[in-house]
Design brief:
Layout lengths: L11 H9 L11 H28 L7 H14 L1
Helix pairs in contact: 1-2, 2-3
């Protein structure tokens, strides 16, 4: 990973549109608190995925994280969330 830690951030509009796209009724509304909570959940999820992928790559003596490392950690990550 890079020496400088970068902050993971999702745009409020993007998260809102993603959540709204799964609504079955047009009347369903999304509060700003729900959007903020989901942004935080996505942030934690992405950070955890990156960390676990890095640990998997290190356990296989790799210098770079590849998609295969992510694929190996994905089932347990999804179960944990």
């Amino acid at each position: 990973m890079a020496d400088k830690e970068e902050e993971v951030c999702f745009k409020k509009e993007t998260v809102s549109k993603l959540l709204s796209s799964s609504f079955k009724e047009d009347k369903t509304r999304l509060s700003s608190d729900a959007t903020l909570l989901m942004r935080e959940m996505l942030k934690v999820f992405v950070q955890e995925a990156a960390l676990r992928s890095l640990k998997q790559a290190e356990s296989e003596d790799c210098n770079q994280v590849e998609i295969e490392h992510f694929e190996k950690i994905l089932p347990q990550l999804l179960l944990d969330f």
